[in-house]
Amino acid sequence: MNALMYLYVRQFRNKLRSNFKKPLAWITLILLVIYVLWLIKTMVASLKFKNVNQFITVLLMIQLYAGTLSIVTYLRRKGIIFTPADVRFLFPAPFSPKRILMYASARGTLISMAVTLVILITGCVKFPESTPKFLVFGIAYLILGTICEHSLAILCYGNEVISKEHIKALCRISYGLIIAVSLAFVAMFISSGLSAQVLVQFLGHPLIKAVPIVGWSLGFIQLFFMGPTVGNVITGGLYVISTAVLAAVAYKSKCEGDYYEDAETFAKDYAELKKKSNKGDTSSWRLGGKKEYKEATVRYKGDYARAIYYRQLLEYKKETTFFFNLRSYICIFIGCISIAGITIDIDLGLGNLLAIPVILVYVELFTSIGRTKWEKEIENPYIFMIPDTNLRKTWNATKLEHIKAALDAAFITVPGGFVLGLTVIQMLLIIMAFIGINATNVYYHMVVEVYLSKVLDAFRFLLNLIQFAVKTLVIGISAAVLAVCIVTGIGVEIGFSAVCVITVLMSLSGMFVASLVLEHMESE
User: Fold this and answer.
1) Do the domain assignments include residue 298?
2) Which of 102, 244, 305, 497 would be a feasible disulfide site paired with 396, CB 3.0-4.6 Å?
3) What's the pLDDT tens digit per position in 402-414?
4) What is the residue range of 29's domain?
């Protein structure tokens, strides 16, 4: 274990040295620290929790979902990241397979510890009178959580006893548990409304705390902050006992390295995914398995640059999820929640019309565009050989992105607008405004990638920060136009129409600049 600890510390130190040899690394670190401090300050200022009991629901929700999902990923042997160096040097080395598992799982444990520490520090700032309670809880929770996490990693990831059929059954049960808890929460939200007090009641329900390990950990947290009730004492005690039992069983369990083959495959997939991510490709590529394709055909219509559009359409039709990505699923989920609130009579006045645009703004800001088909097209030399204008090439290469944006906006706007009582014209204006904003971001995202990726490719954080700033600027201009129309009394519908015109002009300018980028690349 001393050798593994030395290796872990040495890798960490070498990574710091290699990263901080360049000035941009220090800039990235400073910006990251500023962002974390701003995040803590924002949480303290924006969270309207009246007491510690309500504040701790943040940690409870994270523990409920993250704890369940971590067990599932361990069972599927996809929850621990092994690097190619680990596969080459650690697996043949004379180390116990259990020790190697503990070494690799420590990376994920550090991340969860960091998230917990941020929440605890925020709690100390928000409720300074409860600082001793947060400190004692933090020490106890981090120790028990680390032991429990490593034990589960050995028992689930290093499992050599439970059959694959039983593992699949356990995974289905875990997913079913997450869905059931989510549906129960939505039902409680519809009946009682969303508030911190409702969250406290929901997470304190005996059925939630009766779930082994994950539910018991909720009882342990509530025991510290909500007092020693019968349920909290029993479930908190069960969590401590189960952690000790898991550690003992993990120590005695059989683990002779059967997971090596799966870990090696996963390491190769992870290395490939990391390589794609460094190029800005955040498309829906399934980690731990290759993407599946199906047979498909498409009828080509038109000529010249239109062939680009139909080739992209054929590629999408071959994929099992068509052109739906993570953002599409988020929009569908939000739309389903909107449908769940159809029985509620919501009258927010002007807020009824602005609620959906605000949600769409958050979706646009905090979901990555990823590498679009257009950015992938410019890597293929054939696009420069098509006898057509660069503007038409750019339009046909991005046409499907606009269709995807329209569908994503419709998934939220149509059900949400029906619940909020919006007219068809209002919903169409909202969708068109979102298409324009997304189109502008698509074009300028590609421009930033082409011109700055060569300089900042090693510092993806800075590149993402610049792209986020471009998104914010586009959305800020649109929001300013809408605000002027509302304040001056011109009308919200006219304001959305003006936003549509402004975003169309910005997207056209973005498309023109992107076509110039293509022309510049062609001349190189």
Assistant:
1) no
2) 305
3) 888 888 888 888 8
4) 1-46
